[in-house]
Amino acid sequence: MFPMPLMNACRKRVAFVAGRGLSRIAVLLVLWSAALASHAALPIQQWVAASGARVLFVESHDLPMLDVSVEFPAGSGRDAVESSGLANVTQRLMRLGVEGMNEDAISRGFADVGAMLNSTFDADRAGFSLRTLSSDAEQKQALDVMGRIVQSPSFPEPTLEREKARAIATLKESDTKPETIVMRRFAHLLYADHPYGLRTTGEPKTIAQLTRANLVGFYKSHYNADVAVVAIMGDITRARAGEIAEQLTRDLPKAAAPLPPIAPVRALTTALESDVEHPSAQAHILVGQPGLKRIDPDYFPLWVGNYILGGGGFTSRLYNEVREKRALSYSVYSFFVPFEQQGPFQIGLQTRSDQAQEALRVVRGVLSDFATKGPTPAELEGAKQNIVGGFALRIDSNQKILNYLAVIGFYELPIDYLDTFTTRIEAVTLEQIRDAYTRRIDPERMATVVVGGGKPSQ
Amino acid sequence: MVSNTMTVRALIAAAAWCACATVYADVQQHVLPNGMKILVKEDRRAPVVACMVWYRAGSMDEVNGTTGVAHVLEHMMFKGTKDVPSGEFSRAIARAGGRDNAFTNKDATVYHQQLHKSKLPLALKLEADRMANLILSEAEFSREIRVVMEERRLRTDDQPKSLVYEARSATAYEAHPYRTPVVGWMNDLENLTYEDARNWYNAWYAPNNATLVVVGDVSAEAVFAEAEKHFGPIPARLLPRRKPQTEPPQQGIKRVIVNAPAELPYLVMGWHAPSLRDVDKDWAPYALEMLAAVLDGGDAARLNRELVRESRLAISVGAGYDGINRGPGEFIIDATPAPGKTIEELESAVREQIRRIVDKGVSADELQRVKAQVTAYQVFQLDSMFAQAREFGSLDNAGLPFDSLELQAKKLKEVTSAQVQEVAKTYLVDDRLTVAVLSPQPLGGRKPAAAPAPEHRH
Fold first, then answer.
1. Of B20, B154, B316, which has the smallest distance from its Cβ to A1's Cβ?
2. Tens-place pLDDT, residues B33-82
3. For residue A167, what is the nearest residue in chain B, using CA coordinates?
4. How large is the ipTM?
């Protein structure tokens, strides 16, 4: 609510990655223990709770605090076009009323013990993460409220009506902004009617029609123990972690039928372009294709390649060509967002409206050159030095470790993923990157959206 | 979410380290003969460091006609020295597995790196080099100033709420330099020269105007020695005299309206308030902090409960106070009305909330809840080395003791209902108030694309 836009001006805008971008996924093998390659980077304990939920736990007593998340395959990828927003509104209502507690009692339940509950939501995953002191009384109260939110939400009708009105107002406001318009149009070009093309938070029209029965139905069919992933990080014992996992999942509804996988994504067959008028000072530009699955044979070559193309902060090709040499944009980036099915591969920038076509020419040139020729040996070496050398920064806080546990659990990545990570980075070759980009990223079949580009200056 | 940030930030300002003596030490200070201050906190949880150099030169030190120069210089600091060519700073940090960036605010310009602990000497060497040896070429400047103008378009010109904040500050302050935006007025950016940037660098980039902050898996003695080696040889310089430019007393309420393309109106009310100057003897800043938390410390706090949940006048509302500044403080409330509700209704509802606190104070429950949150944040804050380094740097930059976090938390917990009443009565009055309002305009209502900036030499 406080934009605080003028408090800080920064040299670089960090590209916002919806959901978990590759760059945010914790990864790893411990740097300082190359000699201990047989040892785990993090001692992750993993088990299946009696409820059927998958549990991942790292015990750490450095700080007297505890982080716990519970996640379900209940993201916007489970929405239908005609009920877009159902998944998000369901999750939103869960924390606004449970059996025996109204929304104020719930909020106070956390605030009274200094705990914080965050909602996590993207195309694949929906859930909650709690941060609390690990001391007995605080931990117990916070987990009790969290358990009720997950297992006995009451979806009060008057609250639903209010939240629908709030959500619709927020969406309408958002729809005036070039950054929203460009994202929506881009997602639609990439995915057409596939649910990954829907806005994660829904549309004003579809939200207006949602009923309490819709929410209850969605909750019962998606918030099931056998698909739940519980991640726990912090100052408790293994025995206590076991109790918590049961407490948070034993009363979840039983699924009537197993959830189907998310439908496959179709590749683009032609180049698609869209220009939208907007009175903004800058044109907002997105270029991309459906990209990468979370479990994908090309994962590492594409990811390391993207560090070189547009992911590596102040050193990438896009940064050098668009900003450093030509001063066309403040922010320019590329990323993959890996989902259960192919999430977006996306290049983005903003530039003064009359420079839109020039910027687009530069981006296309960089992409085409990279996708056909791949990186240079020096670029690959630099990428590996950064990723391997910076490994420790990926797991240097409880928060980062919790995020990692949640991803590894949700996508069923190998439990030694951390231990083999830097080895797999080191093993990526120039030829693998060139080959993967040649097969997977086709510069002739990109979706391109320009919002606010006005007329080209020449 | 962002309003939480403000509250959290405020609370975090009161955080202290816990008694985990095996993992943590206190902050240690060392001052080099040339006046450069070094603060180190040993934190052994992961083999990494957060490293920051704070220059006590922010937008408040700028003069008319060259607003934005502090931030432009921040960009230019990556453009090379005789030993380290343009862009090489970031490339060297990246090759070392590190991340680097910088930010500028009203009070300071800050450069930071996060790295494996073994790479700290590299960061110190590079920082010392650009403190003394920056090359400021006209060619590099003429490109980078265009990047900064793109940054302004992105973050301010196309963001209606940012424009409201900019107009609000320019209205609230008539004499004090907090009136100008950190990024600078566009016309000043268009007319800024490389000599302006060079003058700024020569005036303020001296060891006696800088503080190095390091948090991480290092020994303080080793950091002091390494810092001495790199920064020690740089001579101290006479700094320009700083004028107080105290804001004269306001006489009557001020109002400003911003017309911009948007769907919903937006209201910001800001009152002049004191900043924290004497951590032990001051009490009003703590009471203002408490007041902000009672109004907006979570979803069950007064503003959200009554204006969003109960009366449904607003779709969002927030309150914040930040007392850690070199200049004066402000107490701010912002809100977006629900569709069909007016700014006038919302403003009078906010005034009613304040009146109730002035008349009746706050409840013991509310005070207790905030105290619990402060206690928890004292621990949560320790999860991030970067956040800790930022906290120490920010206190030191504001002229407050870097080791006063624990005392601040204690003072905040001692605040009484009568003190909250007293500050509400004293400071939240019309003679201190500036009200800024976004008046939404249809998207077609503005001329397409701002006028192009004058061409700079390529």
1. B316
2. 999 999 999 999 999 999 999 999 999 999 999 999 999 999 999 999 99
3. B315
4. 0.91
